[in-house]
Design goal:
It is a single chain. The chain is built from three helices and six strands. 33% of the residues lie in helices and 32% in strands. The longest helix has 20 residues. The chain has a four-stranded antiparallel beta sheet with strand order 4-5-1-6, covered by helices on one side. It is α+β, with helices and mostly antiparallel strands. 10% of the residues are buried. Strand 2 and strand 3 form a beta hairpin.
């Protein structure tokens, strides 16, 4: 049986605790997105999550959503978009209660320039204002796209 000195084992544990976080912090960054290998172009994928309740009631009808889409979203992104129905939940920041509500998920594939990002943020702001929403979730990620 091998005996380990308590002093030695304590020193080894201390050394591991000190070096492990440092090792995790110096992990290599992921390689930049190279779309050429996929015969595709670099773009962004933006997903916007629109809740449809106003208060505790469904306040954004299908008609109101379609009017918003036709009047605010499509003119800003006339080349195409995808809308999916969803069922979301989130914690209300004012009451602390869990809220479940129907939602619309808008997916856009577009250039990642500052003008495009401004258009996306305009859509978020307009929806929040028009339909009295606390927030609209926005996820933006780089993607390779081929049409």
């Amino acid at each position: 049986m091998v005996k380990i000195s308590p002093i030695l084992s304590s020193a080894v544990v201390s050394l591991l605790l000190l070096t492990a976080p440092a090792a995790a912090q110096v992990a290599p960054a992921p390689a930049p997105l190279s779309c050429a290998a996929y015969a595709a172009g670099a773009m962004i994928e933006a997903q916007l999550f629109f809740g449809r309740n106003i208060g505790t009631e469904l306040g954004v009808s299908e008609r109101a959503w379609t009017d918003f889409l036709d009047g605010e979203v499509t003119p800003r992104f006339p080349n195409g978009l995808t809308v999916t129905d969803g069922a979301g939940q989130w914690r209300d920041t004012e009451s602390g209660h869990l809220v479940r509500e129907p939602s619309k998920i808008l997916t856009l594939l577009a250039d990642g320039d500052s003008a495009t990002l401004r258009l996306i943020h305009d859509i978020v702001d307009l929806y929040k204002q028009r339909f009295h929403q606390q927030s609209v979730a926005l996820v933006v990620r780089p993607v390779c796209v081929s049409f």
